[in-house]
Amino acid sequence: MDGTKGASVDDARNTTGARPSSHARRQFLRTGAGLAGAAAAGAVLGRSGPAAAVEADPANLPPNVPWWSKYLGDGVEAAPYGLPSEYESHVVRRNVRWLTATTESSVNFTPIQDLHGFVTPNGLCFERHHAGVAEVNPVDFRLMINGLVDTPMVFSMEDILRFPAVSRFHFLECAANSGMEWRGAQLNGVQYTHGMIHCVQYTGVPLRVILDQVGVKPNGTWLMAEGGDASGMNRSIPLEKALDDAILAYAMNGEMLRPANGYPLRLVLPGWEGNMWVKWIRRIEVGDQPWFAREETSKYTDLLANGKARYFTWEMDAKSVITGPCPEKPVLHKGINQIKGLAWSGRGTVKEVHVSTDGGRNWMQARLPDPVLPKCLTCFNAEFEWTGDEVLLQSRVVDDTGYVQPTMNALQQVRGVNSIYHNNAIQTWLVNKTGEVENVRLG
Amino acid sequence: MSVLDKSWDKSWDKSWDNSWDHPWARTVARTVVAGALALAVAAPAAAPVAAFELDPGKTYDLGRPATPEEVDGWDIDVHPDGAGAVPGQGTAAEGEALFMTHCASCHGEFGEGVDRYPVLFGGEGTLDSHDPVKTPGSYWPYASTLWDYIYRAMPFGQAQTLTADQAYALTAYLLYINFVIDDDEMVLSHETIGDIEMPNRDGFIPDDRPDAQPATLCMTDCDVATKVVGRARIIDVTPDDDSDAPGISID
User: Where is this region: Disordered (chain A) (predicted)?
Assistant: First the structure.
């Protein structure tokens, strides 16, 4: 830190001085937030270990009166669209450069270690594009429905917004979430191992309402959803799913979709792999057979050890993960600690979550705070007493179909290590004797 | 073992006492709901409407018919049997020149893939190995998918700039370098693309999950391996400020 900045910070924290100038305040926020951010990053990433915990400034602690208790803050015109506190600047999406050839056909990760409850803030929902973010002017948006229908039709966004709507909470998980972990513990952070997921309240028109407008012919048994971006993403969907719970959604968490999430219209297929939730959807064709497009042959097919591959693996099976402690969130204190995490199932509703502190030898019931919704992220929590010894933390979910989240060894025995997709194995975190948390594989 | 099992049990008991799952809480909740329902019934015209259960098949005067020209412009998909294929034709010999111009800068002159861009040939016999190479020749079940994907999404960054004839020629070239067809003058067209037999045509099975399920749900003294055999920290490919280490890719 140079002398100028140091002086500004001192002025800003002077308990007898005048209100800091806006310049000084900006400097304070910048340097203060920067320092806090750096220290916090060290702590949350677990690289510096628990010793890197941020220390409070005595000038802001009792009996001193902190500066924010004396001076006016920003007025209501400062932020027409608000942003998080600067002290939360580490809570961001992150990517892994080596995963993909380009950033336009790539993925980033939701910082689930820093989130609370089951709703993901819109600006933190992970992104997965195959040709970058399409910037669609809703005035120019058209949805075409053709194929085996009575009347091929075109709808504008104005049309779409005049249909009756539903609002539902659902998780969206990329089929490749945890895909880098098939062969072993590879990425040291829950954001990277489990962050290709988000959960928001989607609002839109049930797909079957739209299909009723065009009249599906009796031999129409499959739909092809096609995106309006430069990847022209196309996937085959059985008609039953469309008539069940599929939604053409235009809003997430109360506001219109973000461009990265398909603005102005995307498909929502509750419980099914994220690839099928076609963004910027431009067309739905009704047919009598599936299409076997690139994204359901070359990709999103699951290679087994014998060289055969499963296709149309649509449902995301029951899965859970502990989001604290985790590699980004070391155990800082001996004694009582809270375990928190997320559980979900694409086949139904979370029924129970079990937590182990000894690598799966013994399990205990976790609490499931309300609400517990179908095909939606579900929070769980539990306590454990840390004595300073090594601990192997795991969580395991059971859904209301009776499905039990499997171990990695059980999955590998059936599937081998080359499936890429649909890794819903139990995750193990090793809390070592310094309180750092590591992604480990047990054998 | 750092967990005090007894205190764990107690904390769970406490939370149970406070939970809305407690039978007492449920009774209260039911009473409240029943009261609300009674009021609703007493008040006329207050019943909520479950719109999507009540009006199946309901139509609204929204949207408009699509013209044949509009459908032709956007309807570009093709089925494995060739149904729906956009009219056109091309040969592998024509496709080779197009490939050098439009594709080789990413996929390599022989489809070998530059940097991390996809490899487009080879890989036969590797699918059951430790390091499978999944290409159109070794993995893709249908030639129609090649045409469909090239026509809708390639070249990367210049999608839907190729003509249907160019897409057929490029498809023929990829089939040729993968030894699926052996005549570089063979004409591939909308009429013949459904006849191509891909090597891995029978390599796929329908989803047969759920799988990997335990025989019983073990809660105590479970027979599981708890030795640490792998640590992400040692592999060290997690992003930080200055590393761009190679790892196992998803793409």
Answer: 1-25
